[in-house]
Amino acid sequence: MSAAYGVHFGCSSACLAVNRDDKTEVIANDLGDRTTPSIVAFTEHEQAVGQAAKQGMIRNLQNTVCHVKQILGRRFDDPVVTQYKRTASATVLDKNGDPMYEVDYKESRKMFTPSHIAVTIYKKMLETAQSHGGLSGSQDSVLAVPPHFTAEQKKAISSAANQAGFNILRLINEPSAAVLAYDIGQTDSHYSGCVLVFRLGGVSAETSVVKVHNGMYQLVATVTEVALGGDRCTDALASFLIAEFKRQSRCDISDNKRALAKLHHAAETCKHTLSKMENALCAVDSLYDGLDFNTKVSRARFESCVTGVIQKCSQFIDQVLTDAHLTRTSIDKVILCGGGCNMPLLQKAVADMFSHCDILNSINPEEVIAIGAAKQAGLLSDLEDEDIKLNNEDRHIDCISKPICIKCLSETGPELVPVFSELAPLHSRKHLDFNLPEKQTSFCLEVCEGSKVDDVVLLAKIVMKDLPEGAKVNSTFHLRRDGHLHITCTESTTNKTESVTVEPS
User: Fold this and answer.
1) Exposure winner among 75, 146, 245, 300, fewest CB in 10 A?
2) Rounded distance, CA 263 to CA 282, Å?
3) Whole-angstrom Cα distance, residue 245 to residue 4?
4) Three-state DSSP class for 485?
5) Is the CB of residue 212 less than 8 Å from the CB of residue 195?
6) Residues facing 490 on adjacent strands
7) How far is 141 from 152, CA to CA, in rounded Å?
8) pTM to 2 decimals?
9) Three-state SS string across 301-369, please?
10) Count of CB atoms within 10 A of residue 106's CB?
11) Domains of the chain: residue spans and CATH
């Protein structure tokens, strides 16, 4: 039995899914968790990864690396790296123009590249893959990456996975993976519509619009906000808890880094609990000056803390619709992904915005992207064509955004006859034959772009005169890979030919 894997390496956590025998499921790690924190910690004795690294953060904060995906494949002078340095727990230094982490490891000061950290996390995921069914060796996999990733970032993340031992079949953008996870356009190849994918991760948010037509996906627009993430909700709850502790003990911990780290960790645990339950107990032993902290937090209290974040999410979603020149009513389905989308208040806010849509959240939002990548891996692993199978690039098919039609006259007036439908792939070819009526010796072909007679754009007009009566004209429409449309019309008996090439708009 062959298996193929989908890997989603996020800023906050990583998730691994497997496709085997046409079934896709998420694989739990050695602790039984279905996601693994994307955290690496260095100590005097070892290098810890995942939950082990996260648990030791409070005592070993300066030697713990988090959110490495943010700077992977970037240069040190990149504005994102500059911002990252301000909040990173570990020291980030410049070495020949590349960012490097400086940490204490095995009783000495050492430097590690972001790629080393990424490889370490991928190796942890590989161990999880190999533990599933006793498989060993390199695993056929598809990686899900953000749509805004540059070529350098894609190269860096693909290289890290390869070094860890994964056999990369392809990179897929995260919104497309989310759409594929729900089999949109796959089980019903006739479905045509727009899908909005909203991801609220730990440190960033992303909204994308994906057009689905004849089983093909086109990313219409995407907007990323690095200052909006689930951590903002944790911060808001932590601020409330700081005030509550001050009320109870009359002690202000706002300047105590260790106490703040302990309380922030407790706030994160409390946030996850309140996504499932109405109340949660926040308890921290010896939070400050030997004082313990215990308080009960209701979901209503938590939601009042994060109202501002939820409002920003709603504004953020509207922004991508503006960029895509769409309205809320243009969307048919909405997919929620990312751990932040487990919050009931956020789910309700999105449902209220798109009351006419199917809100798809039956799959755990933290697992959606990995499942979609695994389904893509399952489709690719059976292919023999090495040119398709072995590549490290994000393969996508360029499509036309509007239908291409012929304008004809009928008894009821002008009408459009489609040649290439909306989202037809480049390249495509179509042949059409036209028979002239008796006594007609001329032929006129008007090729337009659009779907409404009153709102089309004329792309080309071919006129052929002095043809035999009742002539037959063979026409060929060729959509080239570079976006050019080449049209050739040939009269069958005289071989008289007219052609035109339309440049892409």
Assistant:
1) 300
2) 9
3) 49
4) strand
5) yes
6) 474, 497
7) 20
8) 0.79
9) HHHHHCHHHHHHHHHHHHHHHHHCCCCHHHCCEEEEECHHHHCHHHHHHHHHHCCCCEEECCCCCCCHH
10) 11
11) 4-175+370-389 (3.30.420.40), 187-228+308-365 (3.30.420.40), 230-307 (3.90.640.10), 404-502 (2.60.34.10)
Reported as type and span, the H/E element at residue 376 is: helix 368-381
The two structure tokens encoding residue 298: 């209701």
Q: Which residues contact 68 (CB under 8 A, 6 or more apart)?
A: 11, 38, 40, 114, 117, 118, 121
**Whole-number Å distance between alpha carbons of 365 and 362:** 8
344-353 and 307-323 helices cross at what angle (nearest 10)? 40
Residue with tokens 């036309």: 400
Q: What is the rounded CA–CA span in Å between residue 115 and residue 427?
A: 37
Going by C-beta distance under 8 Å and a sequence separation of 6 or more, which residues neighbour residue 103? 42, 62, 63, 65, 90, 91, 109, 110, 111, 112
**Distance of alpha carbon 401 from alpha carbon 222, whole angstroms:** 16
CB atoms within 10 A of CB 36: 25
φ/ψ of residue 432, rounded to 5: -135, 140
Cβ contact 13:39 at 8 Å: no
Q: How far, in whole angstroms, is CA 411 from its chain's centroid?
A: 49
Q: Are 231 and 210 in contact (CB under 8 A)?
A: no
Tens of pLDDT, residue by residue, the chain (505 residues): 578 999 999 999 999 999 988 899 999 999 999 999 999 999 998 999 999 999 999 899 999 999 999 999 999 999 999 999 999 999 999 999 999 999 999 989 999 999 999 999 999 999 999 887 655 555 789 999 998 898 899 999 999 999 999 999 999 999 999 999 999 988 877 788 999 999 999 999 999 999 998 788 888 889 999 889 999 999 999 999 999 999 999 999 999 989 999 999 999 999 999 999 999 999 999 999 999 999 999 999 999 999 999 999 999 999 999 888 899 999 999 999 999 999 999 999 999 999 999 999 999 999 999 999 999 998 887 665 454 444 444 445 667 777 899 988 777 778 888 888 766 777 788 889 999 988 889 999 999 998 788 888 899 999 999 999 889 999 999 988 788 899 999 998 899 999 999 988 6
DSSP β-bridge partners for residue 4:
19
